[in-house]
């Protein structure tokens, strides 16, 4: 038997990466974590043979078997309810809901039960489960298929709420979700499922939960955004040559990275918040409040926000008029620069 040198220095070779889409990155994270942790089990409608509506779980049932990648009946409440029981019993379920608009049918399981179990048991038990759902507009889908309901879950104590902005962050955040002791709502902006390719690690680690990323350094104005709106913001900045914009990509919506937001606003003195969800009671309002409490005297101009409108998400003919676009984003940035 060959002896193993326990004192050998760690490898200094760079981690291997591959340029892939967000769909592929999520699939890779699920695959690697299922290989690492046999307690992970996937539940969802058509996720096995078909690989899900967007083919995110393609190939996983063939690799891990139909007892770990389970095609369920058409019952969102049943999927999440069973997931809660499995999590309490020692498994790590990943419940896929085909579109985030259908999460309304399982909210009664998430809010009264999954989110409260740690408190209900005085911390002695947790519900380590992930609820994945494609979120947001941009693909000309049908009614109830394009909503951005993240604030409903941010407002529910006991839940971790994550939303990646591209393949790399989707990979790292999902790995973190699959290792979290708490229930995680994992929203996947479907308009960027295949719209972006990035270098994603092979066998990489998790990104930290609760930490935003400064996606771009700047000195004139802070833009706080998340999900698909990071891509829209970058498109808007391509036409703004004389403004130094700092972009804070939240990644974790609950718990919010308060310190990252405040530090950036203190640096630039201006703030624009961009999100797909409706304006009223959207997360931009909470960010405004925090800046008023902890960075008000650093502001050099009134804050502004670019959001969806306070109407039900429209059908495909009016979808483009609803979503924040690069013209609205650029106009908001120029406005705070001129105030």
Question: What does this entry show, briefly?
Answer:
This protein has 339 residues and is an alpha/beta fold. The chain has 12 helices and 14 strands.
Q: What's the mean pLDDT score? A: 95
The CATH homologous superfamily of the largest domain corresponds to Thiamin diphosphate (ThDP)-binding fold, Pyr/PP domains
Coarse morphology: globular
Contiguous helical run count: 12
Portion of residues within helices: 25-40%
List keywords for this structure.
alpha/beta; 339 residues; 12 helices; globular; 7-stranded mixed β-sheet; Rossmann fold; 14 strands; 31% helix
Fold and architecture overview:
This protein is an alpha/beta fold and 339 residues long. It has two domains: 18-201, Thiamin diphosphate (ThDP)-binding fold, Pyr/PP domains (Rossmann fold), CATH 3.40.50.970; 213-338, Rossmann fold. Helices cover 31% and strands 19% of the residues. The chain is built from twelve helices and 14 strands. The chain has helices at residues 22-36, 60-64, 76-88, 107-110, 117-120, 150-154, 167-177, 229-237, 258-268, 283-294, 319-322, 326-338, and strands at 17-20, 40-44, 69-71, 92-96, 130-135, 160-162, 184-189, 198-201, 213-216, 221-225, 245-249, 252-254, 271-278, 304-308. It has a seven-stranded mixed sheet, with helices on both faces. It has a five-stranded mixed sheet with strand order 9-11-10-13-14, sandwiched between helices. Helix 7 (167-177) links the parallel strand 6 and strand 7 (184-189). Helix 1 runs parallel beside helix 7 (167-177), helix 8 (229-237) packs across helix 12 and helix 9 (258-268) packs across helix 10 (283-294). It is globular. The model is unreliable at 1-10 (pLDDT under 50).
